[in-house]
From TrEMBL:
InterPro entries: LipOase, LipOase_C, LipOase_C_sf. The keyword Oxidoreductase applies. Keywords: Dioxygenase, Membrane, Metal-binding, Oxidoreductase, Transmembrane, Transmembrane helix. The chain crosses the membrane at residues 28-46. It comes from the Eukaryota. PANTHER family: LIPOXYGENASE (PTHR11771). Residues 1-173 form the Lipoxygenase domain. GO terms for molecular function: metal ion binding; oxidoreductase activity, acting on single donors with incorporation of molecular oxygen, incorporation of two atoms of oxygen. This is Lipoxygenase 2, chloroplastic. The keyword Metal-binding applies. Pfam families: Lipoxygenase. PROSITE patterns: LIPOXYGENASE_3.
Amino acid sequence: MGTEIRTVGHGDKKDEPWWPELKTPDDLIGILTIIIWVASGFHAAVNFGQFDYGGYFPNRPTIARTQLPTEDPNGEEKNRFLDRPEEFLLECFPSQLQAASFTAVQDILSTHSPDEEYIGEQIQPYWAEDKVIKSAFERFNGQIKMIEGIIDARNADTELMNRTGLDWCHTSF
């Protein structure tokens, strides 16, 4: 697994010194932990909020067709900006087609699939037959629920700043 990911999946980075070793069970656990994190919590934090924050392109335009005025604009640029700021700004924004295309992509990326499965929610039937796997799954599920409780408590604590959290990352959604 490690060799293919390194040499095929990331062939351009195959000789980098930061690649983890895959020689022991602990090495495998570390690698799988990273893969699971990226495919679950990190993915939820990055993707599911894209439309909320970037779907309205004036909040976060994906491209600028022209440069915004700098702190030290030349005389002509400054005068044009001061005379017609709306026109100047609209020239910077993406075209309607560019904005609509990117907004559609953000909507797709941030939409939950109707058949979406959530980590730790249900054990696969063929895993449930193995007592060791079932026991490990139940421990994992309990830890997920405990973490959910910690997040809920922190979000409810009015003494904490930035407590509203990322709703789309909540494990019960």
